[in-house]
Amino acid sequence: MRTTRRGRTDDSGDAASIDEPDLKRYARQLRIFGEEGQKELKKAKVTIAGAGGLGSVTATYLTVAGVGRIQIIDDDVVELSNLNRQILHWEKDIGKKKAESFADKLSQMNSEVEVVVTTERICEDNVAEIFKAADLIVDAMDNFQTRYLLNRVALQKEIPFFHGGVYGFEGQVTTIIPGETACLRCIFPESPEGETFPVIGVTCGVIGGIQATEVVKYIVGVGGLLTNRLLIWDGVDTKIEEFVVERNPACRDCGDR
Question: What pTM was estimated for this model as a whole?
Answer without folding.
Answer: 0.93
